[in-house]
Amino acid sequence: MMDFGMQQQDAAALLPQSIRLWCDPIARGGYENMAADELLSRRPEAWLRIYGWARPAVSFGYFDSTPVAAAIFPGEGIEYIRRWTGGGIVDHRKGYTYTVTLPARDGIIYPPADKLYKWIHGALAQALQQCGVECTLLVEDAPDGGRACWASPVASDIVDPAGNKLAGAGQRRYRGAVLHQGLIQECEPSAGWPRLLAQYLAPQVEIVQGEEPYPGFADELQELCRSKYCTEAWNDETRGRRKPGHS
Fold it and tell me: Residue 130 and residue 135: Cα distance in Å, rounded?
């Protein structure tokens, strides 16, 4: 169960011996959620965070833009959020959001993104199956349906028997660490799937409770929001390119 489609030596190098499972009790704003995930990716431990949203939210990959996201998912009161990870445009008004972080480790270079994606989604698929969801991993990319994430399933996304997408994700690597942000939609797994996912990701699971996963988290969260995610630079729609609508 530890291989999930990778070579055994890759799995042995990758697999954390323990993971901390934190079901975040606070429904946070969009950029607070992004900052929380980034902070966990800086930690020396592996983490699985399950979380909700304070307001209706749509997120988009680092190089997408609010106008594109709003055109695909319009609505009143929606918070449009640029993620630090890649991936398509995702509607968070339904479903379950989770994050897996793998810490930087001296002498360890994690396998390529496609293998990591397959490993994490292989673990998630097994957890969902145990919780009553019929699903499997998509073998190859589906035809491109556009920027909406659920319209363009890719290899190792989780799908139901009819081929409908149930889970997708985006990843980022930074200074040797890995941040994997994922979403489950169009299915209702029974309670307990987060613990099962954690167990498939690591032999030992530590349950973390409370509003702070570690001391000082709340202060660090507000500082990262202030210094990065709420800045004009982060919300500049050009991301170093031409402005939307300009030739």
Answer: 10
Q: Please give the model's pTM, rounded to 2 decimal places.
A: 0.89
Q: How many residues does the chain have?
A: 247
Answer yes or no: are the C-beta atoms of 166 and 183 closer than 8 Å.
Answer: no
Q: Which residues of 184-210 are buried (b: 16+ CB within 10 A; e: fewer)?
A: bbebebeeebbbbbbbbbbeebeebee
The CA distance from 165 to 74, in Å, is 21
Nearest-CA neighbor of 177 among 8, 14, 7, 50?
Answer: 14
- The per-residue pLDDT for range 125-177, each reduced to its tens digit, is 999 999 999 999 998 876 665 555 665 778 899 999 999 999 999 999 999 99
> Kindly report the CA angle at 31 between 227 and 101, in degrees rounded to 5?
95
CA-based nearest residue to 55, from 33, 31, 32, 77: 77
